Amino acid sequence: MLACMLSASYSDSPGDKYVTVITDLTGIIRDGTGPARLLDMVKGRSKQALKTWLADRPEAWRDAVEVVAVMDPFHGVRLAGDALDQCRRLVQQAGHGHRGRKDDPLYKSRRTLHTGADLLTEKQKTRLSALFADDHLVEVEATWGIYQRMIAAYREPDRAKGRELMVKLIGSVSAGVPKALTEIITWAAH
């Protein structure tokens, strides 16, 4: 199985800031027996960088490659957090006609929204309860709920159960999401 991480940064020369890291995940995904194996690192961060690298491999080797989609915790949570921030900003703008200001409840809660539900203090729980009592913030609450489910899936110590939680989460956001929750729909497309 071949996986590519397309966002590793490096500083070799001006202008070339990213590499595509090409990894064999067979030991992790199929067998569950071992670590990933680094195959190569190529300059650039694009589909074309991977295509060029694959074209340089023997045809028999390419035919044996099984490509799988992998969402590592860092990038998965970051995408979900970005969707949460975007939703918060859009709701703030729509409801108040301006960006968040220091005394706006939604703006004041921006960091609390990114805290895992299992790590919230009583004060933070109270702040979120008061925030979500406002019916105008239902989109933020729904997006926050998806974000929390993702964090819970990644934090699950039992890998099989964590995978099951993530599959359910992806299934739930892939179908039946109201159009008003555009940030969730955008995240699910990744």
Search tags:
single chain; 190 residues; alpha+beta; three-stranded antiparallel sheet; 54% helix; 15% strand
Structural summary, described in words:
The protein has 190 residues and is α+β, with helices and mostly antiparallel strands. It is built from 10 helices and 3 strands; from the N terminus they run ββαβααααααααα. Strands 1-2-3 form a 3-stranded antiparallel beta sheet, covered by helices on one side. The protein has helices at 26-29, 47-55, 59-63, 73-96, 105-108, 110-113, 122-132, 138-155, 159-174, 182-189; strands spanning 2-13, 16-24, 37-43.
Q: What ranges have pLDDT less than 50 throughout 5 or more consecutive residues?
A: none
Fraction of residues in H or I helices = 40-55%
N- and C-termini, Cα separation: 20 Å
How large, in whole angstroms, is the Cα Rg? 20 Å
How many helices?
Answer: 10
Arithmetic mean of pLDDT: 79
Q: Percent of residues in beta strands? A: 5-15%
